[in-house]
Specification:
Layout lengths: L13 E3 L5 E3 H13 L14 H30 L10 H22 L12 H14 L27 H4 L8 E4 L2 E3 L4 E3 L6 E3 L2 H4 L8 E6 L2 E6 L7 E3 L5 E3 L2 H4 L8 E6 L2 E6 L7 E3 L5 E3 L2 H4 L8 E6 L2 E6 L8 E3 L6 E3 L14 E5 L2 E5 L4 E4 L4 E4 L2 H4 L8 E5 L2 E5 L4 E3 L6 E3 L11 E5 L2 E5 L4 E3 L7 E3 L15 E5 L2 E5 L5 E3 L6 E3 L2 H4 L9 E5 L2 E5 L7 E3 L4 E4 L6 H5 L3 E10 L6 E6 L9 E8 L6 E6 L2 E6 L7 E13 L2 E14 L13
């Protein structure tokens, strides 16, 4: 129908309504259209069915009615005013729709005036194209185009007998949607117009074109092939709506719905009725509501019952006229002698005629000198208040102006206070009332709260400050090397209870050298060796047939030339190493070789003990040999490795043994936030 027509598919069949009633698509649409006519909110309609499809049909049919009404307003403005510059009422969306229909209608009328075809090839929107073509067709003269005859629903089409050119109509080759009028030419019923394809017909929206004959107070509702007029308001009390959409008076007297007493007679009137007494009063009297006869004061009820120059005197049931010698006009009255008219001083009295304003008596009249803020109305002859805010908009107050009797007063919007001149507005420093939980910055017309370091502004109210949990931030795991503890507005780092102390930067943990600080528990016969996070107490004794030759070395005594003695190492040296777990592999951790080299030396090196787990290996290098970690060590543990070096020099083989104590400790300790160390 209209540009906002919603196509509803019939595949949904019937819908289950409230209470088990089966609702059809048409009933859902009719309910939506009726509510759209009543200008209800289409997005919050009461549901008449539990079906989602019915709800969609309700909303879309309701929206179609509202869009048709809005679009019609725009088309009517284009037709009546010939322009679309007037501000449309309603919301922004309604304004855009009305202006679009107005502009598109002007486009169609311009095409018709210039003789251009109404079905232009412009890439307009669907609704704009319909409105443009409708306004173009509406302004075109009533002529037959391409010999296409549009038939009325009540007229009969031509037959093959009347016109032999209708052979294509009779044999079905024309394929017309509604009527075929000869020589394969298609036509449409009344209320439809032929589409550009020359075969199908589309409904003419008489409401959009303004072609309806709806009266004032009636709304045009488009229907397929026609339209109907519906009253926008009810008929009111005393009337009923007829089938022809007219308001007809209800005859309460005939229908017996009046409430007249037995002594009264019912007399119908338009929209009501009157109760007339059955007993009538004579001339000069009038009956009241109770039927009593009351004298009519003809001197007041009639206009000039007496001749000019005569004075009317009322009597019971009649009146008399007496000659009046003097008749004073407005502003005058008879003097005490009753023989001439003198001026009335309207300004006499406590308030005078000007109700507190200045009064100046004039001959036969008076004039008011109104106070400031009032103006004299020459018709009502009173001083009326001047609405300064309406007469001088934007010139009296900086923000808001409120009219008062005889004056006006200015006020300011939120965030401002009235200046000393009573007209301008100064910025209000809201920070003086301490609205923020921490810091406040005044800005023009408002204020801004902000927080101290370690806090952030709450997203809930923008006023209170919340502590920033630095330990829970994405970078919180890197703030402290071991454990992070959040505090209000800040944080602090902790280290393991033993073996570590907090570095001067307050974040890193550094090892405590118990051997230097003297906090170890080694005995006097033991030596203290510091490791990461702790210490070791070391003690060694030289084996039999060896003597101690230093802090960490044992040398073999003279042999008795036995093979067992000669095969033992010349020197046993004790070494201590420490490194953390998970060091890269391979990593050389110990080097062993002769103190000086001689050409022709041959060195062999091997691990001969203590290599549990095969984490270490030895290999020869040009200057001796090295021991390396070849497998990842993931757990802290201690190793007592025996590394043997055989030196062949000048045909003699000498053996040297290195006792290497390796202490593998846990790498730099790091705990997740709020983890509890053991």
């Amino acid at each position: 129908m209209g540009p906002g027509l919603v196509i509803l598919f019939s595949l949904f069949g019937v819908l289950k309504g409230q209470g088990g009633k089966q609702m059809s698509i048409e009933e859902c649409c009719k309910d939506g259209r009726d509510r759209g006519i009543d200008k209800q909110d289409c997005t919050a309609l009461p549901l008449i069915s539990e079906s989602t499809t019915c709800r969609i049909v309700q909303e879309q049919c309701c929206a179609a009615v509202l869009e048709d009404s809005i679009c019609t307003n725009g088309i009517n403005m284009a037709k009546d005013q010939g322009g679309c510059d007037t501000q449309f009422p309603g919301s922004t969306c309604e304004t855009k729709t009305a202006k679009m229909c107005c502009d598109c209608c002007l486009l169609g009328r311009a095409a018709q005036e210039k003789g251009l075809p109404c079905d232009h090839s412009l890439s307009l929107g669907y609704q704009c194209g319909l409105v443009s073509r409708a306004c173009c067709d509406d302004g075109a003269p009533d002529v037959e185009t391409n010999n296409n005859l549009v038939s009325d629903k009540d007229n009969k089409t031509l037959t093959v007998k009347d016109n032999p050119l209708l052979n294509e109509c009779s044999n079905g080759l024309a394929k017309c949607a509604q009527e075929c009028v000869g020589n394969g030419t298609c036509a449409c019923f009344k209320g439809y117009k032929l589409k550009p394809d020359g075969k199908n017909c589309e409904d003419i929206n008489e409401c959009l074109l303004g072609a309806s004959n709806c009266r004032v107070g009636e709304r045009c509702i488009n229907t397929l092939g026609s339209f109907r007029c519906q009253r926008e308001v009810s008929c009111g009390t005393g009337y009923e709506l007829t089938d022809s959409n007219n308001c007809k008076d209800i005859d309460e007297c005939e229908s017996g719905t009046h409430n007249c007493a037995p002594d009264f007679m019912c007399q119908n009137s338009q929209g009501s009725f009157r109760c007339r007494p059955k007993n009538q009063c004579g001339d000069g009297y009038i009956q009241d509501a109770l039927g009593s006869c009351i004298d009519i004061n003809e001197c007041l009820a009639q206009t000039g019952p007496c001749h000019p120059g005569q004075l009317c005197m009322n009597t019971v049931g009649s009146f008399t006229c007496q000659r009046n010698s003097v008749n004073c006009g407005r502003g005058y009255h008879l003097n005490d002698n009753g023989n001439r008219c003198v001026d009335i001083d309207e300004c006499k009295g406590p308030d005078g005629a000007c109700a507190g304003h200045g009064c100046i008596n004039l001959v036969g009249s008076f004039r008011c000198e109104c106070k400031t803020g009032f103006i004299f109305n020459s018709i009502s002859r009173v001083c009326e208040d001047i609405n300064e805010c309406r007469h001088y908009p934007g010139r009296l107050c900086a923000h808001k102006c409120e009219n008062a009797v005889g004056s006006y007063k200015c006020s300011c919007t939120q965030g401002f206070k009235l200046a000393s001149d009573g007209r301008n507005c100064d910025d209000l420093n809201e920070c003086e009332s301490s609205p923020c939980s921490q810091e406040c910055a005044n800005v023009y017309g408002s204020y801004q709260c902000y927080c101290r370091r370690g806090y952030q502004l709450s997203d809930r109210d923008g006023i209170n400050c919340e502590d920033i949990d630095e330990c829970a931030l994405p970078t919180g795991g890197h703030i402290c090397s071991y454990r992070c503890h959040n505090t209000p507005g800040s944080f602090h780092c902790n280290c393991p209870a033993t073996g570590y102390t907090l570095a001067p930067n307050g974040r890193s943990c550094q090892d405590v050298d118990e051997c230097v600080t003297g906090t170890h528990t080694c005995s006097e016969t033991e030596s203290c060796f510091n490791v990461q996070g702790g210490f070791r107490c070391l003690f060694f004794e030289c084996p039999p047939n060896y003597r101690r030759a230093g802090e960490n070395r044992c040398e073999r005594l003279l042999c008795n030339q036995t093979s067992e003695c000669l095969a033992s190492p010349l020197r046993i040296t004790y070494y201590h190493l420490t490194f953390p777990t998970n060091i890269p592999v391979p990593t050389n951790v110990f080097r062993m070789g002769p103190s000086n080299t001689v050409p022709g030396d041959h060195v062999q090196i091997a691990i001969v003990g203590g290599n549990k787990g095969d984490f270490f290996s030895a290999q020869r290098v040009p200057s001796g040999g090295v021991m390396a970690v070849t497998r990842p060590i993931t757990e802290p543990q201690d190793f007592e490795l025996s590394l043997e070096m055989r030196l062949l020099r000048y045909g003699t083989t000498s053996t040297y043994l290195a006792k290497v104590l390796v202490f593998v400790v846990q790498e730099q300790p790091i705990l997740p936030y709020n983890a509890i160390p053991e």
